[in-house]
Structures are given as structure tokens and as C-alpha cells.
Amino acid sequence: MKFVDYATIYLKAGDGGRGAVHFRREKYVPRGGPDGGDGGRGGHVIFRATHELNTLLDFRYKREYRAEGGAHGQKQKMHGRDGKDLNLPVPVGTMIKDAVSGDIIADLDHDGAEVVIAKGGRGGLGNSHFATSTRQVPKFAQPGEEGAELNLILELKLLADVGLVGLPNAGKSTLISVVSSARPKIADYPFTTLVPNLGVVKPEHGRSFVVADIPGLIEGAHRGVGLGFQFLRHVERTSLLLHCVDVSEMGDGDPVENMRTIDSELAKFSPELLNKPRVVVGTKTDIAGNKERQKQLEALCKKERIAYFAVSAATGTGIKKLVTYLAAALKK
Ligand SMILES: Nc1nc2c(ncn2[C@@H]2O[C@H](COP(=O)(O)OP(=O)(O)OP(=O)(O)O)[C@@H](O)[C@H]2O)c(=O)[nH]1
Ligand SMILES: [Mg+2]
What we know:
rod-shaped, binds magnesium ion
């Protein structure tokens, strides 16, 4: 069970080609001068953000990347060919850090964002550059410069508008599957969702927005218990948190306590998370539940000025109202 939004990789840009040592040899030209050409530049390694990807999975399978070297210089002052640049597509929202210092090198936060992360080495100068009046037969040329070499950490924070949080089994994936075209795995056991799912919601009015469904959180998530921790950073960048609480009799424990457990994990992970606009959604209302407990949850939300909606993803009750509310809240 591996998380796919984090990868450590090694990159090497192409080395520059060597400059050539060569002397002109032509009929009837008794002593031709030096004509060694320059080496080509090594290929750069370039990252480019694209909406077509949404995980860093590829970088977990292949962890070494090398761009092509420049070709060596040739006789007759012929320049060696430049090495091909290596273009690596990454999902929008990928942050690139130096693996040693941890410094952020680039943050590719929009479609098409590009960064030349490792520069190819310059090609060496051929011996034709080194002839002077006193040194007419230079028997040397420059070597090519080495391509840059880097160890990097790639980190992806999904760029979603709405982050779905809640205990395992709360119905998060089911909700995203009825409001968007995402089709995540749904099952009646905890930790069904292992990696985040993104879904685009198209409300009747207003712009589309992106919802991220992350694996269930449990107590201690902020310390790394369960699967929660790696995923919490995904919701850091969302504009709104949607907290699913199972209010049916199928749900374990008390909805109010369950809500507090998640709130406390969010606060411990980053106090700012709780400053985000939040919506609490009581789920699975088609299954009988304890009305008293539902009322308590609703009352708590009212007290804390958090919007509350009761929905059933199974029957569709309350879903439209929720989507309309989200669309309006995101417009602000
Ligand atoms: N009857 C009914 N069952 C629901 C509803 N929503 C979810 N369920 C069921 O609840 C169980 C858990 O749903 P999931 O959507 O997988 O829950 P989750 O929050 O994504 O769970 P994790 O990924 O494990 O954190 C599944 O068996 C769903 O079929 C609902 O509105 N009504
Ligand atoms: Mg799920």
C-alpha cells in the first residue's frame, strides 16, 4: 500500500560534447590551421505541469532520469549536435524540492507551468578557438561541461476546491461518485480509499469545481496513525472542507463525538485547516438513525456556525441542495 503523491528521484542533465582537436588538410594548402569544432550542449531536464496527470505514480516506478549528452565537435569547425532535452510531464500542483536541503525549487501550480530544473552542460570549444600568433598549432580543445545533477523530492498537493474529510466508511467516496464523474472504489469496510480521487462537479449554475476524496482519517492521524497523515496535505490547499459524518445507525459511535475527533485531528495537523470554510454533511439518511443524535450534530454545527446538510447518496435526497450551496460558497 503505497502512497503516490510523493517521490524521490535522481536527475542528470546531459554533459556538453567535447570540442574537437583537428587541423585542416587540403590539397595545395601546405599547413592548414586548426579547425576543430565545438561540442554541442547537453540536454536540459525540464518539468512541465499538465492537467492530464493527477498522480506521481510514474516517478515511483522509474527513479532515474538522464538527458542526452551533446555530441562532440567535428573537423571543419562543425558544431556537435545539442543533446535532446528531457521533458517530464508532472501533475499540476507538483512541488519540487531539493532532497538534501529540503528547499523548494519550483512550484508548478498551473497548467503549462514549466521549469528547467537541470541545465545541460555547455559544449567545449574546439581547437579552432585557441590559435594565436604564437601558438599556431593548438593541440588541445575544451572538454564539455558536465550536466547538472540533482536529487529531488516531488510532492503533489492536489489542487481541489473542496476537500472531503471524515472517518473511514463515512460515505465520502459514495458522495463524490454521485456529484461528479469520479468512480472511486466503494465498500463497506474502512480504508477502502487508498489514494485520493478527484472529481469535477458541474453545478446547474456557476462554474465547475473540483472535489478531492481522501482516505478516511482516524484518531492520531496527525501523528501518522492510519492512512490519514500523508493525505492531509492535500486538503491544505482546498478552499473549503466538506466533512462527512455518518448519521445512520450503521455508523460507529456518536456523530457529535465523531465530528470532534476529526476536527481535533485537523487542528493538530494544521490549525489553519479549521479556519477554512467548512460544511458538515450528515450521510446515509436513507438508513434509519437516531434522530436525537442527528439533532445534536445539527445543533452543534449551528452553534459553531458551520453549514449543515443531511443527504443520502443512495436516494439523492439533499444532494442538489448541497451542490448548489458549494457552488455559491466557492464563488465568494
Ligand atoms: N444506504 C446508504 N449507504 C451508503 C450511503 N453512502 C455510503 N454508503 C455505504 O457506506 C459504505 C462506505 O462508503 P464509502 O463511500 O466507501 O465510504 P468512505 O468514507 O469513502 O470510506 P473510506 O474510503 O474507507 O474512508 C459503503 O458500503 C456504501 O455503500 C448512503 O447514502 N446510503
Ligand atoms: Mg472512500
